[in-house]
Design brief:
This protein is α/β, with parallel strands linked by helices. The protein folds into three domains: 5-110, 3-Layer(aba) Sandwich (Rossmann fold); 145-214, Signal transduction histidine kinase, dimerisation/phosphotransfer (DHp) domain (Helix Hairpins), CATH 1.10.287.130; 222-374, Histidine kinase-like ATPase, C-terminal domain (Heat Shock Protein 90). The protein is 48% helix and 19% strand. The chain contains ten helices and twelve strands. Helix 1 (14-24) links the parallel strand 1 (5-10) and strand 2. Helix 2 (37-46) packs parallel to helix 3 (63-71), helix 5 (112-175) packs antiparallel against helix 6 (182-214) and helix 7 packs parallel to helix 8. It is elongated and about 100 Å long. It starts with a strand and ends with a helix. The model has no long low-confidence stretch (mean pLDDT 91). Bound molecules: adenosine-5'-triphosphate and magnesium ion.
Length: 375
């Protein structure tokens, strides 16, 4: 149910207030009563109102005077007003200047049907305005997220491209005759390749996220060997891991056959391994592959910075990170994509971690990820 709409009714006669309230009372409304203009103003400054119903003839401040005062204050200027009057004539008073433009009239003796339908119309208008405001806020948030995203991506792309640019300048000097040993040349090409891989991975991640948004990240389960696949990923990350001071050990059976999307599961293991090295504090990383009844379990363990309890769920969301932007590169997409892939296989991923001591990410996969086999 939406938040209740507050309605203010103002009349100097208690019995009129009671009769009016009885007419317009509803579950989704809260009715406030005021016996004078002063009392009404106080309430209006404290609360947000969807509508004010003002008796025109009141001793002291009249309904029209109250409306004038409302017009003079930001907080009350936008509240729609319904004047209640005994005589049609006194309302010839021009009220064109009232900013909300929402001014209406009811005549005494009150006709129950007219009162109800008028009030309903105003409440509906109020709700629509609320929805619009909500939509506007969501839009603002989306635009802000897009801006942040663009600046993050630019930053992430800039770093490897900058390195490549420096390498290119070096090559220009070589072309101009500066000597370079074949070993140095080899190392240079490897660095280039690494930077290019980083850029490609970033772009692939972004493509995956937009596929996930559109629901088109499909998995194609086919016979595969998890043990072989994990070994391949570990081997291909060995150089990078060793350079970071985090040698990777693998504990796995020689073979663990099943039916999975090999390319996507490689991506899962690669993401977890990259994180373990990136956040592993330069300590060894362990990867374990186990066959359980009906399922396989892959665990990636590090002895690094760990993850606080309150962040352990959040990090699986888009762009969610538990470290600040400066301390480590990354967009915060890896675990989001990873979890989506694992779930598309009918599996689960979880983390257990003690801050300062390390983290262990566990992926459970059914041996056969085809939907028919799972059902
Ligand atoms: N092994 C880990 N140890 C400690 N913190 C981790 C570990 N893995 C992930 N995290 C935390 O979870 C956050 C989200 O991880 P995720 O892989 O989604 O993004 P990322 O590594 O920051 O960037 P990306 O993977 O997109 O390059 C990380 O920023 C980090 O704070
Ligand atoms: Mg990551």
């Amino acid at each position: 149910m939406p938040t209740p709409a507050n309605i203010l009714i103002v009349d100097d006669l208690r019995e009129n207030l009671l009769a009016l309230e009885a007419l317009i009372r509803k579950d989704d409304r809260v009715i406030y009563q005021a016996c004078s203009g002063e009392e009404a103003l106080t309430l209006m400054l404290e609360q947000e109102f969807a509508l004010a119903i003002l008796d025109v003839q009141m001793p002291g401040m009249s309904g029209l005077e109250l409306a004038e005062l409302m017009r003079g204050t930001d907080k009350t200027r936008g509240i729609p007003i319904v004047f209640v009057s005994a005589a049609a004539k006194e309302l010839n008073y021009a009220f064109a200047g009232y900013e909300s433009g929402a001014v209406d009239f009811l005549y005494k003796p009150l006709d129950a049907h007219a009162v109800r339908s008028k009030v309903s119309a105003f409440v509906q208008m109020y709700r629509q305005r609320q929805l619009l405001q909500q939509a506007e806020q969501e839009l603002k948030r989306a635009v802000q997220m897009r801006d942040e995203f663009m600046s993050m991506v630019s930053h992430e792309l800039r770093t490897p491209l900058n390195t490549l640019y420096l390498q290119a300048q070096l090559r220009r000097r070589i072309a101009a005759g500066a000597p370079l040993s074949p070993e140095k040349m080899q190392a240079m090409v490897e660095r280039d390749e690494q930077q290019i891989r980083n850029i490609l991975r970033l772009i692939d991640d972004m493509l995956d996220v937009s596929r996930l948004r559109q629901g088109t990240l499909a998995i194609t389960p086919e016979p595969a060997d998890l043990a072989v696949l994990v070994r391949r990923v570990v081997d291909s990350h060995a150089g990078q891991a060793a350079a970071a001071g985090s040698p990777v050990t693998l504990d796995s059976p020689a073979s663990l056959p099943g039916v999975w999307d090999e390319f996507r599961i490689e991506q899962v293991v690669a993401n977890l391994l990259t994180n373990a090295v990136r956040y592993g504090g330069g300590k060894p990383v362990q990867v374990q592959v186990q066959a359980l009844p009906g399922q396989a379990l892959v665990t990636v363990r590090d002895q690094g910075i760990g993850i606080a309890r309150e962040d352990q769920d959040r990090i699986f969301g888009q762009f969610e990170r538990a470290v600040d932007k400066q301390s480590a590169p990354g967009l915060g997409l890896g675990l989001y994509i990873t979890r989506q892939i694992v779930q598309a296989h009918g599996g689960t991923i979880g983390v257990s971690s003690v801050p300062g001591q390390g983290s262990a990410f566990s992926v459970h996969l059914p041996l056969d990820a085809r939907p028919a086999a799972r059902a």
